[in-house]
Amino acid sequence: MTRRMRRRVRADDAGFTLIELIMTMLIMGIITIPLANFVLSYFENYQTTENRLSDSHDIQIATAYFSQDVANADTVATTSAAGDCGFSATSPTVLLLKWTSWSVTTGAGGLPTGASTAMSVAYVKQAGTLHRVSCGGASAADIVVVHGLVSAVPSCLTATGVTTSCTPTTPPRVRLTLTIASGSTNDSAAPEQPVTLDGQRRQT
After folding, report:
1. Is 20 part of any domain?
2. Is residue 1 assigned to a domain?
3. Contacts of 12 (CB under 8 A, 6+ apart)
4. Longest C-alpha distance within the chain, in Å?
5. Is 11 within a domain?
6. How many domains does the chain have?
């Protein structure tokens, strides 16, 4: 082996110098620290965004159901008794709406025949959620419309917006004021937000 080849082998086996290692660590630090901050920020904002989307979804569903139920209502009450739709001794009824649904069928001789069905919807507070329990004929349905519910306060209003009593009556407008804890219902530190649902009876 010649002297030139020996020098080349020694140069190839030399490895990294201390300065090169220090420079590499500095560059990696410059890249890694902002990247780590970005990842941490992403996970923090992800949970907040998920909570907001979930709350928004609940509010949209509750608004759609509530406005339709109030539009149909003949009578409105804030209490329920045994035999009423959604009645429970442990889960209080926040609002009870009742009306009569009519359907037309073809009777004898091709003449139309009307048939009525008693319908009712109860908004029930249960374990941090707001349930919509609907009853009519032989059918009944129970769905959760709001999660993370803290409180639900119903009120009846006149056509001019004056609050009246919600004893079994036929108010022109009905309002349901909700307080919702954003995020998990198990998080006592979750921020609360007020939500107002408004509905107007179709008969007015």
Report:
1. no
2. no
3. none
4. 119
5. no
6. 1
- Indicate whether this model's pTM tops 0.90: no
Decide if 26 is inside a domain.
Answer: no
Report the candidate in 198, 188, 204 with the shortest Cα–Cα distance to residue 95: 198
> pLDDT truncated to tens, each residue of the chain (204 aa)?
555 555 555 555 556 787 888 888 888 878 888 888 877 877 777 777 777 788 888 999 999 999 999 999 988 988 888 888 888 888 899 999 999 887 766 666 666 666 778 889 999 999 889 999 999 876 788 999 999 899 999 999 887 878 887 776 788 899 999 999 876 544 445 678 889 999 998 865
